[in-house]
Each structure stands twice: as C-alpha cells, then as structure tokens.
Specification:
Length: 392
C-alpha cells in the first residue's frame, strides 16, 4: 500500500468551464534536495532567483489582464527559501495578476528553518492565510534518514511564529520511513497535535524513480517497512487525529471544521485553475498544460521569448470522467452519482463496468444513498483501486 498524495497529478475535463478562481505558483528553490524528493526544483541555485522572478512576471503577463482568485497556493520546492526581499517581489508580481477575492485562502508551503519572527509577518501582511510546514517528523533519527535540515525545536518555533502572525497552521508528516517503529510514528502525531494545527497531512514514504532513495533501496541500503507496518501507522494516524476531532476529509488530509484546504479541494473536485512556474500544470477550458520541469529550461525559454509549455492535452470525455472518479473518490464524502452524470454525461456503473463491481464485491467501495465512496477497508488500499478505473 502506498498512501501518498501526488502534487503532480492533476485532473482534467474536456468540457468548457468557468474561468478559474484558483491559482498555483511553483517556487522551485531549496537549500538542498532531500533523498526521497522528486519534485521540480533546483538545490543551492539562489543565483537563479532574479531570473525566475522575471520569468514568472513574463509568464503572468500572458494572462492579458488580472484574474481575481478565491484560492492561491505557493508550493515548491520551498517558497520560504526565498529571502524576505525576493518573497516581497514575488508577492507584488503575483498579486498584481491574481488579486485575492474577499474571504480568499492564500497558502504558502514552508520549511521550519525559514520561518522567523521577522519573516512570518511579511507573509501575513501580503494576505497569506495559511502556512503549511513541511515538518515530516519530530524524531532526530527519522529526520536524519529523510535528510531533513531541521530539528524538532525548529518546527515548534516555526509553528509559534505562524500562530503569532494569526495564520492557519498545517503540518505535513511522513510515515513508513526505513527502520521506523509504530511508537516513533505515534510520537510524531502527538508532537504535531501539541502545536494545535488546524490541518494535518500525512504521507507514506514512497521511493520514486530518479531519487537517491530509489537507488539506495535497490542496493538494499534502505529496507522499506512492511505493508503491515505501514497500514498500522496509517490506521493509528486516523484513530489519533479523528480522536482529536480532525475530520478525515481526504485520503491523506485531516482538518478541523472549516479548515480544509480549499485550494486542494478545487483539484479533487475537478475545477479549473491557473498555474505558473517550472513544472506547473494548469487546467483551463478542459485543456491541461504543463510547463517545462527544468527550472533552467523554463527560465531560458521565457527570457528568450518562447513558450514555457512542455505538454498540452485534452482528454476524451470518457477518460476525463474516469479521472474525475479517481480524484473524487480520494475525498471521503465520495461522489454524488446524479451530479456526476449531469456534469459528465456518464453513469458510473456503465463507465466502469466490471471494475466497479469487483471493488464493490470486495467491500472496498460502497454505493448507497446515491453516493459512491471508499469504505474504511478501501481507504487503506485505495492506491490499488485507481489503476482499474483509469484503464478503459
Ligand atoms: S525541502 Fe521539500 S521540496 Fe525541498 S528537496 Fe526537501 S522534500 Fe523536496
């Protein structure tokens, strides 16, 4: 089982839709690359930041006129790796093109070492409403294996800074790290809860091709935890977090009432959104476009007057509907069958056929009250279901 959220996976649709009310900005800078990470980023290349800012401004100019948004998300990389001055410039550029609507949500991903008493007020003053801290663990040995550059104390201090600036706090944690035992994971959960975050995201460690973790695993240097251990950790997280009144609203995400990540909900409910920066994928009018993943190629192309787009696709209506099912089922409330039919023109039982009945019979899915959703058994193995639904 892999319980993992994939930021690069994006839904698509071929119906003409409303103008997007959400935008994603990819900030591809980190001080170094953690061994398990395969996101689009450059490590220790701060010399590129000025050119990146120029490129973002040029890419946004292509919008023609400002587009008001309800949700804005700076992800990475590590957006807070930018100095206060560079972050200020990025805010000015982005907010000129994506002005925030009243009552909007503005999220920024952060590394614990970057957040200080001086830095967080800058975020709040620009309109940031929530900060998502990549804590991953509070355990020194686990942080060392993950090649993180921070300590538990850094996370605690960063969370205090976010709180003092009156922004919502989200904490990301990773489980299933080689050698990890359930008591280490339970300690991570209680340490995170002690910071009283409004939102918690948990991810099972995956060994992605192209990462140093992948090669080290092949060489036997990083023996993965067993599936049973991973399941035990996932179940423990669900019990602990729901016991503290966090709503388990998506496979990997938990929130206090009123604090779901509205931006990510746009992805899972297949809404349109803009995206800029290296490797960023946007979804507008049923077309998904993805920018060049390499930061240097992205910058070069834009500064030379070329398009940053590396791929463009428009799925068939059936393929789009299948994707909507997979993304929709990640949300625990599932998919309303009637609304799905009105939106896509497809009946789910006809579209999925035997694949649907197989998972209903195995009690991994339920279909009652006009809603298709994961069962608690299906939640634990959801990644095994999706390939059956994506294949025609
Ligand atoms: S800090 Fe985050 S984005 Fe940067 S290399 Fe580590 S895991 Fe990847």
């Amino acid at each position: 089982m892999a319980v993992h959220s994939d930021r690069s996976s994006v839904p698509t649709n071929n119906c003409k839709q409303q103008q997007p009310r959400s935008a994603y900005v990819h900030v591809p800078f980190c001080s170094r690359r953690c061994g398990y990470c395969n996101f689009s980023l450059v490590a220790n290349r701060d010399d590129l930041i000025d050119h990146y800012l120029q490129a973002i401004e040029i890419e946004l100019t292509g919008l023609g006129y400002p587009r008001e948004v309800d949700t804005l998300f700076f992800g990475g990389g590590t957006p807070t790796h930018l100095s206060a001055n560079a972050m200020q410039q990025l805010f000015e550029i982005v907010l000129r093109w994506f002005p925030l609507a009243t009552d909007s949500e503005f999220s920024v991903e952060a590394n614990p070492t970057n957040l200080s008493e001086d830095y967080t007020p800058l975020l709040a003053a620009a309109g940031v409403t929530r900060v998502s801290i990549g804590a991953q663990s509070f355990d020194p040995q686990k942080l060392k294996i993950l090649e993180r550059d921070h300590t538990a104390r850094d996370i605690i201090e960063a969370a205090e800074c976010v709180r003092r600036s009156n922004m919502d706090l989200s904490i990301d944690l990773i489980f299933g790290v080689p050698g990890e035992q359930i008591n280490t994971w339970d300690h991570d959960l209680t340490s995170a809860l002690a910071l009283e975050p409004n939102h918690v995201s948990i991810y099972g460690l995956t060994f992605e091709k192209g990462t140093t973790f992948y090669s080290r695993q092949l060489r036997g240097e990083l023996p993965p935890v067993t599936e049973d251990q991973e399941l035990e950790m996932y179940i423990s997280a669900i019990e602990t977090l729901t016991g503290f009144l966090y709503e388990h609203y998506e496979v990997s995400n938990f929130a206090h009432k009123g604090h779901r990540c509205r931006h990510n909900e746009r992805y899972w409910t297949h809404k349109n959104y803009y995206a800029v920066g290296p490797g960023a994928s946007r979804f507008v009018d049923g077309v998904r476009e993805t920018n060049h993943r390499s930061t240097t190629t992205y910058i070069k192309r834009i500064l030379n007057g070329n398009s940053p787009v590396a791929s463009r696709e428009q799925l068939s209506p059936a393929a789009s509907a299948r994707e909507q099912i997979v993304f929709g089922l990640r949300r625990l409330e599932g998919i309303p069958l009637k609304a799905f039919h009105s939106k896509t023109g497809f009946e789910i039982p006809e579209l999925l056929g035997a694949a649907l009945w197989k998972h209903l019979d195995a009690n991994l899915l339920s279909m009652d009250g006009g809603q298709l959703r994961l069962t608690s058994k299906g939640l634990l193995v959801s990644d095994c279901i999706w390939p059956d639904f994506l294949t025609e």
